Every structure is written in C-alpha cells, then in structure tokens.
Amino acid sequence: MSPEGDLPRSSMDPIANEPATPRRVPVTILTGYLGAGKTTLLNRILTEQHGKRIAVIENEFGEIGIDNDLVVGTDEEIFEMNNGCICCTVRGDLIRILGNLMRRKDRFDYILIETTGLADPAPVIQTFFVDEEVKAQTALDALVTVVDARHVLLHIDDSSECQEQIAFADVILLNKIDLVTPAELEIVEGRIRALNRFAVVNRTRNADLPIERVLDIGAFDLTRALAVDPLILDDASHVHDSTIGSVGLQFDEALDEVKLEAWMGQLLRERGTDIFRMKGILHVAKRDAQLVFQGVHMIFDGTFGRAWGPDEPRQNRLVFIGRNLDREALHAGFTACVATA
Predict the structure, then answer these.
(1) Is residue 284 part of a domain?
(2) Into how many domains does the chain fold?
(3) DSSP code string of 58-109
(4) Which of 3, 128, 242, 310 has its CA 20 to 30 A from that of 210?
(5) 0.70 exceeded by pTM
C-alpha cells in the first residue's frame, strides 16, 4: 500500500468534498382485500419498538374517513386520502404527499402506504418508477398483502383487485387462520400459490408477525412485477367493478344499543354476502366511550374504545362497502336505531 493510503483525504480532494447521496427512503405498500386485517397489521407495526420514524399514508374508498380513528395513537404522522382509490382518482395526491415528505427537513426513516381494499396495486407500484422525483428519493421495499383466510374465496374468482393484490405480493399474511379448518386453510393457500409462487406466505392470527419480516426486507423485484403485468409501467387508467360502492352515514343523535344490535344482526343475515366491509365510530346513549364497530360479511365486532373528549362532537360515522348497496334502506335502518328520550 502506498503511503498515501494511510493519510486522511485532503479538503481539496474532489471525492472528499462530493456531497453524500442521500439515502432513498424505503416504502412498504400494505394491501389486501376489504377487511383482511391491514389496519391491524399497521397498528402492530406502529406499536413495535423498532426505533424508526414512520410516515403513514392511508387511502379510504368510503365517503367518510374512519380508518384514521382506527389507527392507534402514536408519534407517527398520518396522511389521509379519501373519496377515491389510490390506484386511480387520487394517485396524484399520493405523488404530492410523497413529494412534500421528501422536501421536509425532518426526514422520515420509513413510509408505509395502506391502500383501500379495492386497490389494484399495479398503478401504485408504477408511481415509484415513472415519477422522477419519487423515483429519485424513495425505494419501494416490498408489497405486503394481507389475505382473509375465511372470506377470500368469496372474492378471488370475481375480483381482479383481489387476484392482483396476491399476484404482486412479496410477502403474504394468510390471516384469520383461527376462523377456518386445517383443510380449508390448505385449499386457500393452494389458491394463493396458484397466483403467486414466489411470495413468502406467513400464516397469522390477528396479523401477528415479527416486524422484521415486513419492514426493510428489500423484497420488491421490478422484473418479477413486470412478469405479472408487462404493462405495469404504462400509464393506463384502472376501472373498478361498477356494482361495488360505498355508503357513508353520519349524524349526531345517540343510538339505542339494543336497537342497533338487532338492526345489525338482521342486516347481516339478509345482506351479509353483499356487504364486504363495515366500519364505524358510534355514539351510544348512556355510554361515555366510543363504540368501535367493524364487520366483514356476516362477521362483526363492536367494542367500546376510548372515551369521548370533553369538547369532542359525539357523532356517529358508519361506512358500508359492498355490492348493490341500497343507500336509502341503510339510512332508514340506521336512523331507526336512534335512542328515544
């Protein structure tokens, strides 16, 4: 080795003075069909002691924003995109938010994007390769798909979004395995493998998975994504099934708990196959806590969460996503649950 090899670089050395290239911020796209458990996984990530400063970008298909209230309170910053799907009408919002994040002085260590359950992942992936600013400053780390073991077979044959969420995945959480038999689970995993034989499949309950299997794994491969869809980098519009829509209901009056439970039970018995997803924050009479309501087809759960704030409006917000929804009938049923004096 020459003597110069042991000396520090001169301040005149152009290599020494060349500014270091800033690290591209890794991004995970979190996807999965309606009610699969994406928000449950997101909450697990945000409450882990991983030491990362994470920005969360959420997209909701519904008319009323609910998901932000379902995410645990953390120091992370959450950015919402409502009234449209991230893969089509609000993709410009995604590019704008990413650009704003990259221009901040207090840079984030990681970005998580939770898509709506009706998102086609291809246009979201495309964002990280066709927009020059996003491409230069972020790196797509992985596409993580959560699959509902109990209900996925109801959608996988008819929904191209459900199929593509699985086909593009680098990591799959086959979730809610406690709700199916071992034989049913093998059938579901077989269908998943028929669509994607490369992804790592993890069988989970309540989206419980070590975070190191989800974040900073360097799993995304553009070559493989192009094999799934050779036109993934083409800027083409995406069209949703016109029979699938969202109904959002909102009003202030307190609800009667018994009436509400009876209406929900009847609704799901009669229309459960067409109601893919329900979620809401509800104001129940004689209760000081919010009723957090979530449902997938005929399975639903309501738990009382945090107390209403002293100056917080006690407001009901309920969102339905499904096929051929009757807005007037849903509104009439919901308002019939108002508590009487």
Answers:
(1) yes
(2) 2
(3) EE--SSS--HHHHSPP-SSEEEEE-SS-TTTTTHHHHHHHHHHHHH-SS--S
(4) 128
(5) yes
